[in-house]
Predict the structure.
Amino acid sequence: MTTGPVRAGADDVARGTLLIGEAAEEFLAAVVRTLRRLCAGEAERHLRAPPVLGAAVAERAGYAASFPHLLAAVSQGGAPTDLVLTPAACYHAYPLFEGRVLAAPVELTVVADCFRQEATAEPGRLRSFRMFETVRLAGPGECVAWRDDRLDRLTRWLGTLGLPAEARPANDPFWGRPGRLLAAAQRADGLKWELAAEVAPGVRQAVVSVNYHKDHFGAAFGIRTADGAPAHTACLGVGLERLLLALHHAHGPDPDRWPRFVHGPAAG
């Protein structure tokens, strides 16, 4: 049994779920406010997304083909509906700009309840979790510069929380043999980076990930920049429950003993 702000019994661990107490909820609200200032600045909007996503969006975005082992469909009476459980917060953002021509770079933040059918219940490998994301839509050079800057900001921010983390190249868990080729290409091109922290003795999990998608989503949803080319996108994601687990592991169960920098103004 994990105690303090994060509670999980044996059944919860097996299901890959956590129970979060009131104090932890207030803490996470402060985290989200800080992340909005730190990661997005003057973002166009902030969204609270639902735990479900249109199945057609998941198809168009390529998630259903690339990660069928993680995706969960919503069914009624055993028959599939037109919804799936949200696998990542950013998938709610791209349809908002469908068919648009962007006169300037666009940025937004979104928090969503997410679900992934993970094959393991190791600490921090949750099936149900919340994700904070910042999404950037712009030209290729702007997206890469934005991604690298946000990775640096989050590295420093985690350090203020007593969670030293070093950026490491990563890849998404693509499905099957073709997926292994995609993962290798993703690493070779340096498209995905993670910041990992220890969430249990000897167990490190990615708390932050930053991704550059090239023009994948711009082409899929008909989003273009002023020069007529498909928009490029980048995103930054923070696993909120994993952050709680890392702080609990590093500083103990009492949030009053955790570093207080998270509650104050974020450094740019």
In short: DSSP finds eight helices and 14 strands in the chain.
